[in-house]
Amino acid sequence: MHNFDFVKPSSIAEAVKALSTEGAQALSGGQTLTPTLKQRLAAPTVLVSLTGIAEMQGVCLGSDGLSIGAATTHATVAKEAAAHYPALAALAGGIGDPAVRNRGTIGGSIANNDPAACYPAGVLGSGATVVTNRRKIAADDYFQGMFTTALEEGEIVTGVTFPVPQKAAYVKFNQPASRFALTAVFVAKFADGVRVAVTGASNNGVFRWSAAETALSGNFSAAAVEGLTVSSDGLIGDLHGTPAYRANLIKVLTKRAVAAAH
Questions:
Q1: How far is CA 109 from the centre of its chain?
Q2: What is the DSSP letter of 38?
Q3: Domains of the chain listed by start with CATH number
Q4: I need a labelling partner for 166 at 20 to 30 A (CA). Which of 24, 38, 49, 136 fits?
């Protein structure tokens, strides 16, 4: 690991100022950044911790939906969102292991946008709004590919606001060693339609399965997905599963998610 300075600001304004320093990098939960530093694959001169910023922590139900501070840990979301958005709480409670859940944060997860991470599916499947120090970004515009988001230089995620659906569920097929999603599906039913988000399957990261959304908007049942097929083009192929295997998993897990949502 290379030498670096460590800064822990107490406000968003202080964090933004610290991050304007050349070579500075934000540190949230550190579940990806820390091992990257250990392997010397990153060499920031300053690490700016976001975990001490009170205004970026906590879970709150308001008129716009369920607002979660970006520095809120997975464990906290699993506990405090359960009464308001059980599917999201269950998603958070299934990330990694207790050590990961007590350090990792929702902001760190979606800023990193790992193609097999759980939170991107919850954010995209819910049609959530990502709040930064500069603006609000719709989930459909935020995720732009593997490890790629709409965040600009000097912009940090400060929170996420989730509209609460009528019904929802998240079903994950675990990669047993990492507990990342080999493939996972988040399904959310709203008054104006259904959203289906898939993670762990595509080379382009999280995406919406539009054919399933159309079918389920007309008939919210597992049977509505039965006649659909998923193309394996662009899906991940590795030692854990072929693109065709993941294509089949998308359909199977969507049906299970719909059944679970009921």
A1: 6
A2: H
A3: 5-49 (3.30.43.10), 59-162 (3.30.465.10), 167-261 (3.30.390.50)
A4: 136
